[in-house]
Structure formats: structure tokens, C-alpha cells
Amino acid sequence: MFELTKDHEDFRRVVRDFAEREVAPHIAQWDRDHHFPSHLVPQMGELGFFGLVVPEEYGGAGLEEGGFTYLCLAIEELGRVDQSVGITLSAGVGLGINPILTYGTDEQKKAFLPDLVAGKTLAGFGLTEPDAGSDAGATRTRAALADGQWTINGAKAFITNSGTDRTSVVTVTAKTGERADGRPEISAIMVPSGTEGFTVEPAYDKLGWHASDTHGLTFTNCAVPEGNLLGERGAGFKQFLKTLDDGRVAISALAVGLAQACLEQVTEYSKTRTAFGKPIGINQGVSFQVSDLAVMVEAARLLTYKAAWLKDELEAGRRSVAEVKQAAAICKLYSTEAAVTATRIATQIFGGNGFMEEYPVARFYRDAKILEIGEGTSEVQRMVIARGLGLPQ
Predict the structure, then answer these.
(1) Which residues form the signal peptide (predicted)?
(2) Which of 69, 98, 121 is the C-terminal boundary of a domain?
(3) Contact 138, 94 (CB under 8 A)
(4) Which one from 76, 129, 313, 375 is the annotated catalytic residue?
(5) Radius of gyration of the chain (CA)
(6) What are the pLDDT digits (tens) for 241-281?
(7) Number of domains in the chain
(8) For residue 69, which of 254, 312, 332 has the smallest C-alpha distance?
(9) Cα of 58 vs its chain's centroid, Å
């Protein structure tokens, strides 16, 4: 059965030290300013955070087994201090590096992975569109192949790490034809930053994740070489579904970090905040909520690291894709909904102070909701779980 080793826990402490030293003192200001802390990216690269699932030949850690679990630990610990920095790593690896690592040619890997692993650059993944979110098969972006070039036209929405000063490439899904059964043929194509016709729209004014980079993208007769096709032509739909399976476990780890932060905040506050001459934690109305929160954190963490372990076991050939898909959907559904509940509990226990931006729980409350939406909504997770149970579709 899965368990965290001493090496895992030692690595956790490295990430926690980095987060508390380099992120915690500054994040409130970055959040207020909607500032993306670009300088942290190479620091995380130097510590090896971006290379945990990457072979040594491309600059990665070269971990024979367990790399995905290490990645989830890093995301959890960063997310415990700030969700924006946590999602920068999560998306940088899960949506930026992983598609290139999994489906890229050796030439593509050598061209992009070393700098991505080192944190010199970032990559994005353009799937969602203004009219195609959960229904990703409704993609309207098109790519036509002629004279050795793909010409892309369309738009993407809500793309993380797509407009930073370090973004080197965005992989986008596009219709490249039609199948014999009439369904669209969807492929994945790599578009380097700065390509003519590739426009990064202004940053979104978001509810939360203020220190994370998120943009819409527009493609107007954007031409890239035929060799920028990622994986097989027409396999884009299958590729991004697998990418999302892995990403769901990473988002679950991000949610665990947020719920853990709420637990720590309310535990301390319940000991020190007094009402009617006594610490508020003496009241069962408070202590029972804190206890429930502790249970949610424990359950979310166990579900998340079971799924991470299954993913590592799959890479070693000891588990099936179906097992990982089901575990990923279960942990993502439970952990993200638990995190949203955790922030509501924390804000309520903090009372009026919880409504003040000077307290971290206010930021936690704003940051939480997107966890139930990104990388597949809660409704989509329930659909995946039901399908895995063999229920009628």
C-alpha cells in the first residue's frame, strides 16, 4: 500500500521552507497588485520543482519511481501558503511540460524541456474556448495544413502561464479535419510565443488567484511549421483527456494545501481569540467545526496521495489507466469541494476579521472556488465516476 517515505517528507520540508521564506512575506502585496512573481520561477526550477517527472536527459530529476507524488507534495506545500504560486507550478508541469514530455518527438523535447525544467521558461496549454469549456469537443479553433505549415484561426480562454515574460510556447487544440463518422478531427499544435498572428489578450480581472497569470488567446492566420504538431494528427482529444486526468490529481493536491492552511489558521485563532472572556475554541459551535475540518483535510490528503501513488504505479506498469482515471476524479471532486467548505468555515470562525483582506482566510476564500471548476468541473468528475462504476450513460 502507498505511504510517504522519509525522502518524501524531507522534500516536503524543502518546499515548505521555500514557500515560507520566499512567498509568505510578499503574497498579500502581490495579491493586491495582481502581480505575477516571475522571479520565483527560476528559483523553483533551481530547486528541481519543475523537473520531478522529467528524465535526466532533459534536465529533470530522473526519479525512477515516485516522481508524481513528489510533484503533488510540492504543489500542496506551495498551495498551503498561496494558491497562485501553487497553480503556477501545477500548470507549468501538468499542462506545460507533460504534454511535450508524453507526446513530443525527441527533437521537440530537446528544444523545449531543458529550459522549462530549469524555470527559465514556462509553457501553457490552450484547450478551453469562449464557447467550449466542459464540452471540449466543441472546439472551434481550426488549423489548416498547406505547404508544410499549419495556419491557425480561433480563440482560447482562461489559459494559465500563457502571457508571462517567461512563456515560450502554448500547445493548442484545434480542428484539423473531419473523421469518417462526421466527428471533428482534433489535433494538438505547439505555438511558440511571439509567432505572428498569435495574440495574448489582456490579463483577466479574476475573483482569486491574483498572482497567477491567466489570459485569453487569439489566433489570426497564425502559421507554424508542420513539425509543430504534438503527437499524432487527430489524437488531440485523447491526448488532452489523459493530460486532464493527471492534472486533476495535481489540483487535488493544491486543494489539500488550501484546506490545511485553513485548518492551521482556525486552530490558532480559536485558541487566541476571546469572546465573553474565554477563547472561542471552548465553544462546541467552534470546536466541532474545526474538528470537521480536520477530518476533511485528512480524507482529502489520503485520497490525493492514493491517486498520486496509483499514477506512479501506472508509470511502472503495475496499475491500469482506468484505476488512475477513477481515483483522479474521486480525489479531485472531494478535495476541491472540501477546500471550498474549509474556506467558508474559516471565514465564519474569523467572523468580521474573516471579511478583512489583512487576514489570509479572505484570500483563501476568494481563491477556493476555481478549484471546483478548473481541470474539469465537479459535475464532470461525477460523470467520470459514474462511468467508472459502469452506470448507464
Answers:
(1) none
(2) 121
(3) no
(4) 375
(5) 21
(6) 888 888 999 999 999 999 999 999 999 999 999 999 999 99
(7) 3
(8) 312
(9) 22
Backbone angles phi, psi at 171, to 5 degrees: -90, 125
CA 16 to chain centre: 18
CATH number of the domain bearing residue 279: 1.20.140.10
Q: Which three cell numbers stand for residue 104?
A: 513530443
Q: Among the three residues 233, 252, 282, which one is the final residue of a domain in this structure?
A: 233
Contacts of 123 (CB under 8 A, 6+ apart): 92, 95, 96, 97, 100, 112, 116, 161, 167, 168, 169, 170, 171
290 beta partners: none
In angstroms, the CA 168 to CA 163 distance is: 9
Pair (255, 173) in one structural domain: no
Residue 197 φ/ψ region, left for φ over 0, alpha for ψ in the -120 to 50 degree band, beta for the rest: left
> Are 214 and 243 in the same domain?
no
| Residues 117, 59 contacting (CB under 8 angstroms) | yes
The stretches of the chain forming alpha helices (DSSP H) are 6-18, 27-33, 40-46, 67-81, 83-91, 98-103, 106-118, 236-272, 284-315, 321-350, 360-368, 378-388
Q: What is the CATH number of the domain that holds 47?
A: 1.10.540.10
49-97 tens-digit pLDDT: 999 999 999 999 998 788 999 999 999 999 999 999 999 999 999 999 9
Q: Which three cell numbers stand for residue 195?
A: 509567432
**DSSP secondary structure letter of residue 206:** -
Is 337 noted as a catalytic residue in this protein? no
Q: Containing domain of residue 27, as a range? A: 6-121
Q: Quick one: 302 and 363 in the same domain?
A: yes
The Cα 297–Cα 334 span in angstroms is 10
The answer to whether the predicted template modeling score (pTM) of the entire model surpasses 0.85 is yes
